[in-house]
């Protein structure tokens, strides 16, 4: 494990067993924990986490793609402490410096005409509001999303979220329609030149590389059959997050945006996971597709773990909401705005977008070597530090590796000190989305651990 001179405080809270009991009795059971024996995490420092026994872990999942600049980043912590002593809260019915300073700073990172921000508390709330704005502004109702997408768990956004295990069989999703996911690895069309990633699929190209056109035909089919002549909008993540870093063919989003605009709809980019430099080449994921959305939603990395989120849009679209009152007590409160501003400073001062590109590309290429070595790695994909490693029974049939086999590899990585996320319809994809401050030597360590876990899997399979 790479050295780290940070010494965690001594753990002084309840014993592990008592925590487990509280969990069983007093915490909603819908909140599930990772791992057979869930970790009790006690402290964080940049890319490192420490459990109650002082064991150190390399965090490759960042609290689900949320700790953008590093756990307890000193600059963010200091700015927050300063603001804590000055003013915690007053709503936006008054003026206070933090919201103005932050609004100016955040919107300066967007191209024209995306210059107006509405601050919220979570990604679901941001997407709720984006849907609401699109409907109000266009006076249309229907919104289209891609299958496999996750856009939130609120009753409104559940209609956009298209993953069975988040659906609950209650009435929801009025006016929401999903369309085929242009997944160039697992979908019906794809090949070895389609996506914007240093690593392409191992698939042979189908139809002389016309995967994008085939998927656009499916998109048109949805527009022709499942929605009225005019729509309120279309929402997509630039790279699907929860579904396991799924990437679309180049130019797919560009053409889809055009088709939606022809139907009077607005295009919403859900940057909850892809924003703030994580994809490396650009600050926002939509820029990697050469499009300018009408509405952009932000959360997770925006606050490095502080509960805050945002909707950025044009003045014209935002004005539709101003025809009546729309209020939010906590959105844009002074603490949140100070945290948000310090996160933006840290990204800039620590060079984290460039680090995402350099370290992310290095990691993708190292993982691609493992894919070539192990039959059960079907795909390595992503951009910057938004990486997916999809596990299969073999590369030709692309059937997902059985869950219990994937889980054992994942548990082994954890036992060797590396925390990785899971995603995909069958939980078949390892998600690697660490704090953007990780280094190449962290990557070397993680890849070595992953390789060891895969070798152990091969040995277990051979012994059966
Ligand atoms: C792409 C995307 N959009 C929206 C959300 C919802 O954000 P929140 O959990 O903050 O409500 C998530 C959460 O995982 C997400 O990944």
Automatic annotation (TrEMBL):
GO terms for cellular component: mitochondrion. Its cofactor is pyridoxal 5'-phosphate. GO terms for molecular function: (R)-3-amino-2-methylpropionate-pyruvate transaminase activity; alanine-glyoxylate transaminase activity; beta-alanine:pyruvate transaminase activity; pyridoxal phosphate binding. Transmembrane segments: none annotated. It comes from the Eukaryota. Keywords: Acetylation, Aminotransferase, Mitochondrion, Pyridoxal phosphate, Transferase, Transit peptide. It catalyses: N(omega),N(omega)-dimethyl-L-arginine + 2-oxobutanoate = 5-(3,3-dimethylguanidino)-2-oxopentanoate + (2S)-2-aminobutanoate; (2S)-2-aminobutanoate + glyoxylate = 2-oxobutanoate + glycine; L-ornithine + pyruvate = 5-amino-2-oxopentanoate + L-alanine; N(omega),N(omega)-dimethyl-L-arginine + pyruvate = 5-(3,3-dimethylguanidino)-2-oxopentanoate + L-alanine. The keyword Lipid biosynthesis does not apply. PROSITE patterns: AA_TRANSFER_CLASS_3 (PS00600). InterPro entries: Aminotrans_3, Aminotrans_3_PPA_site, PyrdxlP-dep_Trfase, PyrdxlP-dep_Trfase_major, PyrdxlP-dep_Trfase_small. GO terms for biological process: glyoxylate catabolic process; L-alanine catabolic process, by transamination. Coiled coil: none annotated. Homotetramer. Belongs to the class-III pyridoxal-phosphate-dependent aminotransferase family. This is Alanine--glyoxylate aminotransferase 2, mitochondrial. It comes from Taeniopygia guttata.
């Amino acid at each position: 494990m790479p050295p780290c001179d940070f010494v965690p405080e001594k753990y002084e809270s309840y014993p592990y067993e008592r925590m487990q009991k509280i969990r069983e009795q007093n915490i909603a059971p819908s909140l599930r924990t990772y791992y057979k024996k869930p970790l009790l995490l006690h402290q964080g420092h940049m890319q490192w986490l420490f459990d109650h026994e002082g064991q150190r872990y390399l965090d490759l999942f960042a609290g689900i793609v949320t700790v953008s600049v590093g756990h307890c980043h000193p600059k963010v912590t200091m700015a927050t402490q300063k603001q804590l002593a000055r003013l915690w809260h007053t709503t936006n019915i008054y003026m206070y410096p933090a919201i103005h300073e932050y609004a100016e700073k955040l919107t300066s990172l967007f191209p024209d005409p995306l210059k107006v921000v509405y601050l919220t508390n979570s990604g679901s709330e941001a997407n709720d509001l984006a849907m609401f704005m699109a409907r109000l502004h266009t006076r249309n109702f229907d919104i289209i999303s891609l299958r496999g997408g996750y856009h939130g768990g609120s009753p409104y956004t559940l209609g956009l979220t298209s993953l069975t295990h988040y659906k609950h069989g209650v009435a929801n999703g009025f006016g929401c329609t999903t369309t085929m996911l242009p997944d160039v690895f697992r979908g019906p069309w794809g090949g070895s030149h389609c996506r914007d990633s240093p690593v392409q699929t191992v698939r042979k190209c189908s139809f002389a590389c016309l995967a994008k056109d085939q998927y656009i035909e499916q998109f048109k089919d949805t527009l022709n059959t499942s929605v009225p002549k005019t729509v309120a909008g279309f929402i997509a993540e630039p790279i699907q997050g929860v579904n396991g870093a799924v990437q679309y063919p180049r130019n797919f989003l560009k053409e889809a945006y055009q088709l939606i605009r022809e139907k009077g709809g607005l295009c919403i980019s859900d940057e909850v996971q892809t924003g703030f430099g994580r994809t490396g080449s650009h600050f926002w994921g939509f820029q990697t597709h050469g499009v300018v959305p009408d509405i952009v939603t932000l959360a997770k990395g925006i606050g490095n773990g502080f509960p805050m989120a945002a909707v950025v849009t044009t003045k014209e679209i935002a004005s539709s909401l101003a025809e009546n009152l729309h209020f939010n007590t906590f959105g844009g409160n002074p603490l949140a705005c100070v945290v948000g501003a310090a996160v933006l400073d840290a990204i800039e001062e620590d060079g984290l977008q460039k680090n995402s590109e350099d370290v992310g590309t290095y990691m993708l290429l190292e993982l691609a070597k493992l894919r070539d070595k192990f039959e059960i790695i079907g795909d390595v994909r992503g951009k910057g530090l938004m990486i997916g490693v999809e596990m299969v029974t073999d590369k030709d049939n692309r059937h997902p590796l059985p869950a219990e086999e994937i889980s054992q590899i994942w548990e082994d990585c954890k036992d060797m000190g590396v925390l990785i996320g899971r995603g995909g319809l069958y939980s078949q994809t390892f998600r690697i989305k660490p704090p953007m401050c990780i280094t190449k030597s962290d990557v070397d360590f993680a890849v070595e651990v992953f390789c060891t876990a895969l070798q152990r899997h091969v040995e277990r399979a051979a012994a059966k």
